[in-house]
Write a structure and sequence with these properties.
Layout (H helix, E strand, L loop, with lengths): L6 H4 L15 E3 L2 E3 L4 H11 L2 E6 L6 H11 L7 E4 L5 E4 L3 H10 L3 E2 L2 E7 L13 E9 L8 H8 L4 E5 L1 H5 L5 E9 L7 E5 L5 E7 L6 E2 L4 E2 L40 E2 L6 E4 L5 E4 L2 H4 L4 E2 L10 H11 L21
Length: 340
């Protein structure tokens, strides 16, 4: 049986990138250095030269939704390949660089009402480290003198806003001289001036207007585009503290006035029959105590009435015409000649 000399023979097939080769690196000072030739680098650049890097301002969208959206809205520009990255970014590869320029210069593209930020791919771009501390935006420069409609002249003017990337096709060909349109890398700390003054060496100066057709929201707390400061997740959260109930105040008497004492007198219920016995043992009762006006106070000494019950009885007999009562030996308290 023939001995297999290397693992590469076991996995060698006709798949893409299946025929890989080993190039020994160099070890210096405990570090590994790789020195690829220029033709290897140029081969990779030519493959991705006609590509755009896209990202969303906020949370990224799923791959199938982005793929379906760009296939429909970019169908007029030809075929497009969509590649998804781990950090929610996408790479869109087209047939040529002219298609990339046309898509970049057309307008601001939206997918599911979210702006899609596009950048041209360039060699050495570390896509996974792209942050939203700076974004490319189109800027219009109004009343720009003719002598500044050159690559260097536009570069000086656009540098007053941010880092100039490139001008659109119409500006390059100078077919529209009303304003110059330049794509600028805008930093989050930029003050976005509305006008700038161009000063020449001879002392002349001219004012140029600046218009931003679209600006993304930016947060001054975390220094990033994509959200406002009130929606920042890194901002200190407010702690909710429940409101303490108020302690009720005790009611006090007004100054200079004394509170009326509480009357604790217990009154006998009205309607209960009261029974009394006279000197002869005769029971006298009145079932209508409410009409007599004679309320018995329990716990309070009852004041003595100046008129006794027998005197009232004698008065009743006199009113009936029977005269005065004679003294009765069996009834104490009667006076034979006594009157009221």
């Amino acid at each position: 049986m023939e001995e297999v000399k290397g693992w590469n023979r076991l996995f060698k097939d006709e798949r893409t990138m299946g025929n890989l080769q080993y190039f020994p690196p160099k070890k210096e000072g405990g570090q590994t250095f790789i020195y690829p030739p220029d033709d290897i680098v140029e081969e990779g650049i030519s493959k991705w030269r006609s590509s755009l890097v896209g990202q969303f301002m906020d949370k990224s969208l799923p791959y199938f939704l982005v793929k379906k959206a760009v296939t429909g809205m970019w169908s007029q520009f030809g075929d497009v390949e969509v590649f998804s990255l781990e950090n929610g970014m996408y790479i869109f590869r087209f047939q040529d660089e002219a298609t990339c320029d046309e898509i970049m210069e057309s307008r601001l593209w939206h997918i599911s009402n979210k702006p899609l930020i596009l950048r041209k791919w360039k060699p050495g771009m570390q896509i996974l480290k792209l942050a939203l501390s700076s974004v490319p935006v189109w800027v219009k420069f109004l009343h720009l003198p003719m002598e500044f409609w050159t690559p260097n002249g536009l570069s000086y003017v656009a540098s007053g806003v941010g880092v100039p990337l490139y001008a659109d096709k119409v500006t390059k060909e100078q077919k529209r001289l009303g304003f110059a349109r330049v794509l600028v890398e805008l930093d989050v700390n930029s003050d976005c001036p509305k006008e700038m003054t161009i000063c020449r060496a001879n002392g002349d100066s001219v004012t140029v207007g600046v218009i931003y057709p679209w600006l993304p929201p930016k947060c001054s707390s975390c220094k990033a585009f994509g959200h406002a400061v009130f929606a920042c997740k890194k901002q200190d959260k407010k702690v909710w503290i429940p409101k303490q109930p108020k302690t009720p105040k005790r009611k006090t008497s007004p100054v200079g006035k004394q509170a009326m004492p509480f009357d604790r007198t217990i009154r006998k219920p009205v309607g209960v029959s009261k029974t009394k016995t006279n000197a002869e043992g005769l029971r006298l009762s009145n079932s209508f105590d409410g009409l007599s006006g004679d309320e018995e106070m329990v716990g309070v000494e009852k004041p003595r009435s100046p008129t006794t019950f027998l005197q009232v009885f004698e008065k009743v007999l006199l009113s009936n015409g029977k005269g005065k009562m004679e003294g009765n030996p069996g009834m104490e308290g009667f006076s034979p000649t006594g009157g009221l």
